[in-house]
């Protein structure tokens, strides 16, 4: 799965060094030190994924640690979705660029209309990776303040923290979230061995922990709520910058029988899908690679953002012949759009969804996170 193009995060590097913001689709500035950054030589790929070693950062062009999940208050009266991500981009002689997004969706329940909020931060330099100075054992640890010495209002802020523990568990803190995640079921290597080839665009290592038991607190609307639930963790890295010039659609489904499904649809500019694949984790833990010709995705509606003018697919039918799946994926809220031009140069849609349908002819329900890119124009 090609989830995020951290060419976008490179815009944060340039923005930090220049007087004004540089968007991802803007021409690079001229003059030292930007004229001839040293290209990083490509590594010999693939090599075997090894955990917990590969939970840590890699000397690669592009990398992210990405968590989405579904939470509920202890009485079950209120339900939430959340996203927490750390991006890393490495480009030649530029300092390492980092960005982070945290989003919270309150699902409409019990007469509540629901809500969606998000925030973003970007930072330049190695200080974000705090694992080398941690006093406790971690595989990866990040603290992102988003501090900008040119903007006094950003100094002294509490850091957003993401820790990956040696057993695969995690801790996440920031923007109202304080969560502890258990390792859950065994990690899943996508495309059978954890290496996804992008042809001329290179390739990416990619694994997930699809069902991590989660507990902690969530602060929203002036209240701090105790919550429990389940989270999905993706880690992806490689010497790629971008594929899918038309964007991509990504789905993570947790179904009521205990099975999990990841689907990736990479679009070309003409709207076709040159790369489609999935990974199925059965309720018994058995993992199957799903070929693209087994997957059917049909958009059932659309939603147009009143802020950006972008029109997004909204609601889908997903059919997979290989496993007998036929489900509808429905957004909990139509508006789960993130305008992250300030940190990553893009506008994307990512949010919580409900799942209903059949699996092997039997009724099934579930929860999903969906990410959509390439539908909005950054001006």
């Amino acid at each position: 799965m090609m989830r995020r193009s951290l060419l976008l995060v490179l815009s944060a590097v340039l923005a930090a060094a220049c007087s004004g913001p540089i968007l991802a689709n803007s021409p690079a500035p001229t003059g030292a030190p930007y004229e001839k950054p040293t290209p990083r030589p490509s590594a010999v790929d693939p090599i075997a994924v090894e955990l917990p070693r590969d939970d840590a950062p890699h000397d690669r062009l592009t990398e992210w640690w990405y968590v989405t999940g579904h939470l509920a208050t202890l009485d079950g009266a209120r339900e939430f979705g959340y996203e927490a991500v750390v991006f890393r981009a490495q480009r030649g002689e530029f300092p390492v660029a980092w960005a982070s997004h945290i989003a919270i969706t309150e699902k409409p329940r019990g007469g509540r209309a629901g809500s969606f909020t998000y925030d973003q931060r970007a930072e330049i330099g190695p200080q974000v990776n705090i694992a080398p100075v941690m006093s406790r054992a971690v595989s990866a640890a990040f603290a992102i303040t988003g501090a900008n010495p040119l903007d006094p209002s950003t100094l002294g802020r509490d850091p957003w923290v993401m820790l990956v523990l040696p057993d695969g568990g995690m801790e996440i803190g920031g923007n109202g979230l304080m969560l502890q995640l258990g390792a859950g079921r065994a990690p899943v290597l996508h495309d059978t061995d954890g290496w996804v080839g992008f042809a001329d665009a290179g390739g990416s290592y990619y694994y997930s922990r699809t069902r991590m038991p989660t507990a902690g607190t969530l602060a929203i609307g002036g209240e701090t709520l105790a919550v429990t639930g389940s989270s999905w963790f993706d880690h992806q890295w490689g010497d790629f910058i971008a594929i899918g010039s038309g964007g991509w659609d990504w789905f993570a489904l947790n179904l009521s029988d205990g099975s999990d499904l990841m689907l990736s649809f990479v679009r070309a500019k003409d709207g076709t899908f040159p790369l489609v694949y999935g990974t199925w984790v059965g309720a018994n833990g058995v993992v199957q690679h799903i070929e693209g010709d087994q997957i059917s995705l049909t958009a059932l509606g659309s939603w147009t953002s009143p802020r950006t003018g972008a029109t997004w697919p909204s609601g889908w039918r997903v059919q997979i012949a290989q496993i007998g799946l036929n489900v509808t994926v429905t957004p909990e809220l139509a508006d789960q759009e993130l305008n992250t031009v300030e940190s990553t140069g893009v506008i994307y849609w990512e949010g919580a969804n409900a799942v209903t349908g059949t699996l092997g002819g039997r009724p099934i329900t579930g929860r999903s996170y969906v990410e959509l890119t390439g539908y909005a124009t950054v001006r």
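The chain has a mean pLDDT of 88. The helical segments are 7-17.
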